[in-house]
Amino acid sequence: MKQKKIFKNFRSYRYYKVLKLSFFILILILYSILLIVCFSESEEEKYDSPIFDGTYACHDSISCGIKYGKSACNISTDSQFKEVFMSALYTENYFKGSLLLGYTIKKYHPNHAMYLLYFPSQISASLVCQLKAVGWIMKEVERIPVPWDGHLYGNFDDQFTKLQMWSLIEFDSIIYIDSDAIVLQRIDNLFKMITPYAKFEFAAAPDVLDWQILTKFNAGTY
């Protein structure tokens, strides 16, 4: 009798262990399926890149010029976009910065046009060709000189030329970013700040470099 009871208890214990193991395997399978679904939805097509982080966003500006077998110098400058990104390159000193900025903008905003204000006399044709390869649409502008005889740092001698953007009435909204910055994520939601419904015509962030200029905005991004 005692042996039968022991055997019965053993069978119950073994049944419990099998049931517990089966339940654990089921949970593991369901968790694996959930992970596969999540990663398959978030995964983007990626390409090798020596520039940024091992991914490369091929887009309409033919940044992957070699992959497509097309010349960057033949990229069309026609654009129907009303919401655009813009930067400026007045000397060749910030050329590499403009390349990286253009790449990061296009990586996260492949369907937005990018315009680069520049002085043709200051930027060589070779560099212009490379800038087009990243996706910049080159826009010639005339320099606006400093309206007074005061002293300015060398980097700011041409900064009043940014006022030329207010004459570009062919665009509805412009996000301007200086060439010493990069884009780390999508920021096209900023375009929605400048709409008839938002009732804003201009948006910028305060300059936090010095407490004495906190009441002024940073002209590097607006």
UniProtKB/TrEMBL annotation:
Keywords: Membrane, Transferase, Transmembrane, Transmembrane helix. The chain crosses the membrane at residues 21-42. InterPro entries: GNT1/Glycosyltrans_8, Nucleotide-diphossugar_trans. One of its GO terms (molecular function) is transferase activity. Signal peptide: none annotated. This is Glycosyltransferase family 8 protein. The lineage of its organism: Eukaryota, Fungi, Fungi incertae sedis, Mucoromycota, Glomeromycotina.
